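Is this the right way to post structure tokens for a design question? Let me know if I should format differently. Anyway, here goes:
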């Protein structure tokens, strides 16, 4: 699975504000599947962040370059062997976790080259998604905008699934923000009422 599946068909990025709030001033950032580089450009303007994007799709690479982003054309599934340990303050995987094949390896690499990782993903446990499954249909929503036959998503996961994954892989959730379809933060029953999850996490210290 290439990084060209990232960013999906979404045009409104409601997770930008949350991610921006977590990035320190002048931080060094790696954005995996950076798309047109809009997130890195935003972080550079607002947080004076530096860093690189990784993207496979030719057109998106060109778009990133036009946006002034240092972008490397590569497949995320091949790993991050070109980067040394702790090369970045943050490694971001936004709206792509559900579309990569080797999830454990990629998340492990994120925490090898970065001190902290940030991921965002559509919550399959959202009540509208559950309702569509109960009606015998594959869910389609703003967060999951594809039909079954053209989706790049190969995994479905819920907020509870991701937190169990973190606990089982020695990862510590530092912050979590769950948003509904309107972009408002959800604090009650997030796995049922939340449409989009944003996580900041790192490795448990030995």
């Amino acid at each position: 699975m290439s990084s060209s599946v990232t960013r999906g068909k979404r045009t409104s990025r409601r997770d930008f504000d949350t991610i921006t709030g977590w990035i320190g001033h002048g931080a060094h950032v790696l954005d995996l599947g950076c798309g047109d580089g809009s997130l890195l450009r935003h972080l550079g303007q607002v947080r004076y962040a530096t860093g690189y994007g990784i993207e496979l799709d030719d057109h998106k690479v060109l778009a990133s370059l036009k946006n002034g982003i240092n972008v490397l054309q590569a497949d995320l599934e091949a790993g991050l062997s070109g980067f040394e340990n702790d090369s970045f303050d943050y490694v971001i995987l936004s709206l792509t976790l559900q579309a990569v094949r080797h999830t454990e390896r990629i998340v492990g690499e994120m925490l090898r080259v970065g001190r902290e990782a940030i991921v965002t993903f559509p919550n399959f446990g959202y009540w509208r998604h559950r309702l569509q499954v109960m009606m015998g249909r594959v869910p389609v929503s703003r967060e999951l905008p594809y039909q079954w036959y053209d989706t790049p998503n190969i995994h479905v996961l819920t907020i509870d699934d991701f937190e169990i994954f973190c606990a089982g892989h020695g990862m510590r959730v530092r912050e979590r923000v769950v948003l509904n379809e309107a972009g408002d933060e959800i604090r009650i029953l997030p796995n049922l009422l939340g449409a989009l999850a944003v996580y900041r996490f790192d490795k448990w210290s030995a």
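Format looks fine. Someone answered above. Worth noting: The chain has one domain: 3-203. The chain has seven helices and seven strands.
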